[in-house]
Design brief:
The chain has 262 residues and is of the alpha/beta class. The protein has ten helices and nine strands. The protein has a single domain, classed as Rossmann fold. Helices cover 36% and strands 22% of the residues. Strands 5-6-7-3-8-9 form a six-stranded mixed beta sheet, with helices on both faces. The chain has a three-stranded antiparallel beta sheet with strand order 2-1-4, covered by helices on one side.
């Protein structure tokens, strides 16, 4: 059996001014090339976990336990690890044109000259299905729809060809149709570029369409983890069962199946 891409052991994270840990004694392995969904309600510790993986915890956060990456070298954010935020205002600069923002990752991490990086950015916007990508290159974020901005954020996150992509509630601010389109896009990109995907969501229906495994979080703790099929058909906890029945009946397929296929 191959070594895991990342081994997390007894990870506990506390924020300044909070008595209760945001994450407590989390232990799990992340496998190279897998799609792991992190599911739970708001405040369950999902975002804290992935931000710890990416080195994005805020100042004042205290971390215990261990995050051990293969070869003992943490992936570099932006180069080895792409991060897609829920709110595109966290990743897109409102005063820079779209083309500049997507090209910057290739210039900085891949060493491309501006002309090559600009062409790379255009190809990425086309790849993430931005309508009239050439015109979008000259637009500012506020001139695009929410779904288009999220596509741009995904393009920027994969500009340096990372091996790991983290999508932290990247669909929650979008309507149902656009959510399904973004999940379909992530599915295609992960397949095409053979990336490891960590998909954070409160929607277990979306997770079931995209993930190999699902990890269920509640109150900063890991409730259970297993294959998507096992979690959906034979959940071990009442909490997981409530997440499932709160979204759809197990006897019928999720709403986004028509986008991704059965």
């Amino acid at each position: 059996m191959s070594e895991p891409l990342c081994r997390i052991t007894n990870l506990t994270i506390r924020y300044a001014g909070h008595e209760t840990p945001a994450l407590e004694k989390l232990t799990l392995d992340l496998k190279a090339g897998e799609r792991l969904a992190i599911v739970g309600e708001s405040g369950s510790g999902k975002s804290t976990f992935v931000r710890a993986l990416a080195g994005l915890l805020p100042d004042g956060a205290v971390q215990y336990g261990e995050i051990q990456w293969a070869a003992n070298e943490s992936p570099k954010l932006g180069r080895d690890l792409g991060f897609v935020f829920q709110d595109t205002s966290a990743s897109l600069n409102p005063v820079l044109r779209i083309g500049e923002q997507v090209a910057e990752g290739a210039r900085h991490h891949l060493g491309m000259p501006w002309s090559s990086a600009y062409q790379h950015a255009l190809q990425l916007l086309e790849h993430v299905r931005i309508p009239n990508a050439a015109a979008a290159m000259h637009a500012y974020p506020h001139q695009l729809s929410g779904g288009q901005r999220q596509r741009v954020a995904i393009a920027a996150a994969i500009a340096s060809r990372p091996s790991i992509l983290i999508a932290d509630e990247a669909t929650s601010a979008l309507d149902t149709v656009v959510q399904a389109e973004i999940v379909g896009l992530l599915d295609d990109l992960v397949n095409e570029h053979a990336m490891t995907l960590i998909f954070v969501t409160h929607d277990i229906a979306l997770a079931s369409n995209l993930a190999d495994r699902i990890a269920v979080f509640k109150d900063g703790r890991l409730v259970e983890i297993g294959t998507a099929s096992d979690i959906l058909t034979d959940p071990a906890s009442d909490y997981t069962r409530s997440l499932i029945t709160g979204h759809y009946d197990l006897s019928t397929p999720p709403l986004v199946t028509s986008v991704l296929g059965s």
